[in-house]
Write a structure and sequence with these properties.
It is built from six helices and no strands. By secondary structure, the protein is mostly helical. The chain folds into two domains: 62 residues, Helicase, Ruva Protein, domain 3, CATH 1.10.8; 29 residues, no CATH class. Helix 1 crosses helix 3 and helix 3 packs across helix 4. GO terms for molecular function: phosphatidylinositol transfer activity.
């Protein structure tokens, strides 16, 4: 039987080990326990591996600033990311699309 990790203690240890990290553009990420839990789970609760992964993630987010990226398609063509262009997604339209009818009457 596998031992259940003490999640609270691991989160506190990870917070302590990474207290030097900051994300000015996204401060909520490092203030949220769920972030630490998600990273810990992804590394099977291995604190050292999790710290390494979190540090790499913060470095990447600091360099590329993904929260500041604006989608030009969204601003130029509202609805550009819908399944059927120019039509909001609804169950009827989705069913028509799935069955090969890509022309949707309005």
């Amino acid at each position: 039987m596998s031992k259940t990790p003490d999640v609270s203690a691991l989160v506190q240890s990870l917070r302590q080990a990474t207290k030097d990290l900051s994300l000015p553009d996204e401060p909520d990420i490092l203030e949220n326990d769920e972030t630490y839990i998600r990273f810990l789970k992804s590394r099977n609760w291995d604190l050292d591996a999790t710290e390494k992964m979190l540090r790499k993630s913060v470095t990447w987010r600091t360099e590329f600033r993904p929260s500041t990226i604006q989608c030009t398609a969204c601003s130029s063509y509202p609805g550009a990311h819908t399944l059927v262009p120019k039509h909001p997604m609804c169950p009827r339209r989705a069913a028509q699309y799935e069955h090969g009818s890509t022309s949707v009457s309005t």
